[in-house]
Amino acid sequence: MEPLTRPDDSREWSGCFTDIGHGMFGGWAIEFVRRSRWVGLLEQLESLPWKSPHSVQVLVHDEEDERFGLWMIHDGRLVEIPLPRTRRAFWPSPFTGEVDPDSPGILIRTDGPGGWPDGD
Question: Which of 51, 84, 90, 116 has an alpha carbon 20 to 30 Å from 25's alpha carbon atom?
Fold first, then answer.
């Protein structure tokens, strides 16, 4: 993680990780305000030489999400782990009318007030 604790203009994403693992478990944190600020982050984390890739857990909370999303490495890729009572919503762009294939969508609670946006 050390290279990711320093600024690097060659990365697609901006920011630096901070060590928050001062206990039994190691941990790193970084905060992003918009999805556009963390494009490429998951791919870079996938490419790191993890000693135990099966134990890597990435929690992401975009400003629109109602909960943190959980990603773990499976078969060399970071994949989102479905969480109970949540669903990812995708809406078309107001400019193109199409859903952006790179959009992570918004993680919504299905048991909260109003439930799923489509009344599902």
Answer: 84
Q: In whole angstroms, what is the distance from residue 89 CA to residue 107 CA?
A: 6
State the DSSP code for 107.
Answer: E
The letter for the amino acid at 12 is E
| CA 90/CA 21 separation, integer angstroms | 33
How many H helices and E strands in the chain? Answer: 1, 7
Cα–Cα dist 10/72, whole Å: 25
Q: If pLDDT is split at 50, 70 and 90, which confidence band does 119 have? A: very low
Whether 16 and 4 have beta carbons less than 8 Å apart is answered as yes
Contact, 109 vs 85, CB < 8 A?
A: yes
